[in-house]
Amino acid sequence: MVGKTTVAGLPLARGRSQSIFQRKDFSLCRLDYVCVFLLGVILTNIAQLHSSASITGNLKSGNSSGSSLHTIASSNELQKTSTNSKDAKLTDSFQERHAMQWKIPEHIVHQRDEECSNAKVSKTGGFCLTKGRHVGGNQMQDVPMATFLAQNIFNGKSVVDLGAGLGHYGTIMQKVEGVKVDWVGYDGAINVQGATDGLVRFMDLTQPHASDERPCVAGDWVLSLEVAEHIPPEHTDAFLRNIRCHTREGAVISWALPTQTGGLGHVNMKEEKDAIEAVEKWGFKVDWDLTNQVRASATISHFKKTPVVYRVVP
Description:
By secondary structure, the chain is of the alpha/beta class. Helix content is 40%, strand content 15%.
């Protein structure tokens, strides 16, 4: 039988050494874990001391936490400035995309103007205007309703006004305090550019054909007040195609009722349900809550009944 001796009370085979992991008594193993724990605490303290020293050095060199906060604040201001600049660029881009890059030949303009030589309305429903001749109630404007539109629907948005008349609504909305409306106006009236000093530009709202697939220079919203009833019925869908093509979010449209028979060039009046049905075929849905609010804001009698707010169906 091999003789045994002991070291610190642990039996050892003579002539061999055993690791603590080979022993049946693990008291030293537990001691080793304590050592590892203590070593971890020491290393943590060293790291904290090193961090403190770094902070002290930064303070001595003027790199305080206040300076860091100032850097963050400056970064936020820079981001805000960048956002404002981006908004300004978007606004410029919208106007630039609607700017003409060519001049219409004079003989074409004369041909168009000749259509009004003995008439008050063109073949496609546009009024015949001169600088001092405003026909068809084009000078009428509902300021409270325009203000509501600017504050509650069009604020911060781009708006394409189709059938803009003399541009009254664009002018009103752009003057509302605390509101930004990026507006462009088009109308089918002959000589509308001359009558408005270029504020409103000519567009035949019955063209192109309703099946035309070319994209338009769209805004966020379209505004079209008391225009649809002037469009010859056979061009109704071409007109609605123009509305849908020029908007990304929705449209505010008023369509004269059959009872509004006294208007110049009223050839396409519709009952409310029929007008809504025609518009919704082009991918819109009525927002009745906003519709009722717009009508409540109006002061002109027909605007208390006819405006409808449509949203583009996703």
